[in-house]
From TrEMBL:
InterPro entries for this protein: AB_hydrolase_fold, CocE/Ser_esterase, Galactose-bd-like_sf, Xaa-Pro-like_dom, Xaa-Pro_dipept_C, Xaa-Pro_dipeptidyl-ppase/CocE
GO molecular function: hydrolase activity
Domain Xaa-Pro dipeptidyl-peptidase C-terminal: 302-522
Organism from which the protein derives: Salinicoccus roseus
Protein's recorded name: CocE/NonD family hydrolase
Highest taxon of source: Bacteria
SUPFAM superfamilies recorded: alpha/beta-Hydrolases (SSF53474), Galactose-binding domain-like (SSF49785)
Entry keyword set: Hydrolase
SMART domains associated with the record: PepX_C
Amino acid sequence: MGVFDVDYNKIHERTDFPYEVEVTHHTWIEMPDGIRLSAKLWQPKDIKGTTKGTVLEFLPYRKDEFTALRDEIRHKYFAGFGYTSIRVDIRGTGDSEGIIEDEYPQQEQDDALAIISWIENQEWSNSAVAMIGKSWGGFNGLQVAAHQPKALKTIISLCSTDDRYADDVHYRGGTMMASDMLWWASTMFAYNARPPFPKFVGDRWYDMWLDRMENTPPFVEEWVSHQTRDAYWKHGSVAEDYSDIKIPVLTMSGWADGYPDALFRLMDNLDVPKKGIVGPWAHEFPDMAIPGPQIGYLQEVVEWLDKWMEADGDVDHTDEFLVYLQDSVKPATSYEYREGRWLDLFKEDQEIHDLFDGRTGEQRLKNIQHHGLYSGVYCPFGQDGDLPDDQTIENALATSIMLEPQQEAVNIVGQPVARLRVKSDVKEANIHARISDVHPDGEKTLITRGQLNLNHYRSHEFPEDLPVDEYIDVAFTLDVIGYQVPAGHSIEVSLSPTYWPQIWPAKEIAGLTVDLEDSRLELPLVNNFEAVSLKHEQAETAAPLEKEIHREGSRTREVIKRLTEDEWVLEDYSDEGLRTLPGLNITYGTENRNAYIIKENDPLSARVECDWNVIVKDDDIDTEMKTKSVMSCDADYYYLVNELVAYNNGEECFSKTWEKKIKRNYT
């Protein structure tokens, strides 16, 4: 399955809606500066007066084809229950005019506020709006809520973050994410190069396309230019002041997603009516996500909308924090289903257990550059090969501490914290920690992990040299998790200065020593709890769009040792397939090949290459975009190269190369 495809085998179609639905494929929404954004509307037919409210999703992923399959089964569902549901293309994407400059700029938030104002002034509007979205749409929902527009009554935010620096695909723990920094930027570089459709924008589509390709920047240049938690990252991070959000929030994520940590912080810090749900899922909507069990996501949302969109005065509400405690499982790079039980974390007590309790002595850490190749994808979408493999090789490449087998089962629920006393023999270094479930037969399943740029141990905003050969005390979190380690299994802790490709390596090989006696690794445990059942355990959707599949998607991930070059390579290839949507006769598809390359004993050999091939065509156009993005380094600089070549009716019509050299700043 492709990332933006929909698995029709998982659809449970609902047919008995209160309203029939009519669709408007394109309408213009004019912004204050004259730029027009393209919107698609689903609305209930024959409704008297205004609709029950408006559900807004605001994305750069193209409503006409790329998100059309997932949009139809969800937005049509909302309209079937009496809501107007709208998908708007962000400026510079899809059929919208203008140029997209970056992720989440002020312009995007201003445009969202203007869209909400436009909605308020429509004859079908009751002036109640909800923003909804996964990932990008979850991010900007939080950001717009912080602006407090009067018409915005609630947000539904999935797989999103409250902190753009600490907890996204660019940096984590102050370390640069080699796995995702260039890959995600290359993704948007290729996506942003796609043309609008003449059927909606007219004959000027070609000029719009050329302007878009010429003037849309490679986002990676800006992201690598900001290596600390400066004003660039604080913008759009609602963690700066949670009190800016004053409306009810429904939020969801999954243990296999890249963003469950943020959900825990939102549930801890938002002082509004709220509900959080964390399942076993990857970065996908929980009615389709794997691993299962899936849930009735759309029923949850409609119930939430009905509760808050027209709320007047006090509403009977009790906050819930529903999390899925996963049973122990043998390691695998894909799961269809994870056994487990649900609990309401707000109703349970946690205790803290220190895995290093009773440990003594100093431990010098192995420093092996290709450690991390079996780590899986940082933010999985549920494709084959996404998840971490057996950790036996990984743990052998790190300094690993095996604990005694468990006498009783323990339930890890929440966020582990590493509090380490560590010293370095160089001025710049990283550290990574990982916890594994060791089965009686020796197989090892990754439970959770975390990382820290040690130069950030006092501040992500103002990094500093490490004191050489002097102990410092550092603290960092590991990813939140819900996982039961059964009796008879062991827990293994692994520590390392490297974790390629999730961490871009420090400029020189660091010798790190950890004083175990003065270190702690704290696990949050919920060993006695009352299991709960979700109200909507069976997913359902509206009827899907017709699609014609020309080429099925496929995925390969391979770890390669090039013996003649002493080079390790992780090759990741994803074919999103090729399909046609007969309704608008649009054909689209993508292929993406990534290579993460490093030589042993040479951290400066780190190199990432990301290639994309994107096809978009309909009755009027036949276009293809090819991109190549490369990131490399030396001791002082990062080097970025982005190339774009575009074809119209099989002939090259555009070519451009962007090159950038950016000074390293403690990364």
